[in-house]
C-alpha cells in the first residue's frame, strides 16, 4: 500500500493533479508539500504520495525502479479518478519530473505536465550510489546510506535505471510541458532543462527559478514555483462543480 496526502481546495476546484517527488525524498519533502499546498490554495487539488518503501508507504525501496515509479504514478492517478477527481495535471520534482514525463501518455485524461529540476537522463542518479554499484552488480544487493537512512540497493533497480530512456518519451509527449529549473541548481544542472526543452515539441514553456536551490528549501521558493504552475496550467484544466474525491 502506498501512502499519500490529498490537498483539497477550500473553494471552487479548477482541476486535479498528482505530484511525484524526488529520488529518495517523499511526499513531505519541502518541494512536494509546499507546492501541493499552494496549488490547493489556488484551486488545484493535488495528491502527493510516497513511493514504494519511502515515508509512510509499504514495501522495500530496493524492489522499486524508474519503471515502478512510473507505474505508481499511474496508480495514484487511478486512485484519484475512482474517487471523482480525474487527473489533468502531473507535476514532478527532480527524478519525479522525469517520472511524470514518462508516465503522462499512459494516464488517460492528463492534459499538462510540469517539471521542477528534472534530469534529462534518469540514470544520472547513479552518481549518488556509485560507491556501491559494483558490489550490487556482483552480489545482487548492498546497503546504501543516504540522508541518514539505510536503503537496500538491488541489481534489478540499477539495471532498470540504466535502461531508462527519457529522451524518446519527451519527443513523443505531445502534451503541454512546463520546464522549470534554477540556473544555480548544484544537484541537477541547468543543462538538463535546456536539453529537455530542446527535445520537447510545442506547446512547451521554460521558466528560470532564479535564486532557488534544487530542493526549494529557501523562503518562498516552492510557493513561487507553485504560483507559476497554477497560472501556466489554467488553460488546460476543466473546472467541474461536481463532488470532490472521497478522502479515506
Structural class determined from secondary elements: alpha/beta
Count structural domains: 1
Global morphology: globular
Residue runs with pLDDT of under 50 for 5 or more positions: none
Distance between the termini: 13 Å
Summarize the biggest pleated sheet.
7 strands, mixed
Total number of helical segments? 8
Mean pLDDT: 94
The CATH superfamily label reads Alpha/Beta hydrolase fold, catalytic domain
Number of strands: 9
- Report the CATH topology name: Rossmann fold
Would you list the SSEs in sequence order as H and E?
A: EEHEHEHEHEEHHEHEH
Strand content: 15-25%
- Gyration radius, in Å: 17 Å
Helix content class: 25-40%
Keywords: Hydrolase
Protein name: Alpha/beta fold hydrolase
Domain AB hydrolase-1: 18-216
InterPro entries: AB_hydrolase_1, AB_hydrolase_Est10, AB_hydrolase_fold
3D architecture notes:
This protein has 248 residues and is an alpha/beta fold. The chain has a single domain, classed as Alpha/Beta hydrolase fold, catalytic domain (Rossmann fold), CATH 3.40.50.1820. Helices cover 34% and strands 19% of the residues. The protein has a seven-stranded mixed beta sheet with strand order 1-3-2-4-5-8-9, sandwiched between helices. The chain has a two-stranded antiparallel sheet with strand order 6-7. Helix 2 packs across helix 3. The protein is globular, with a radius of gyration of 17 Å. The mean pLDDT is 94. One of its GO terms (molecular function) is hydrolase activity. It comes from Kineosporia mesophila. InterPro entries: AB_hydrolase_1 (IPR000073), AB_hydrolase_Est10 (IPR053145), AB_hydrolase_fold (IPR029058).
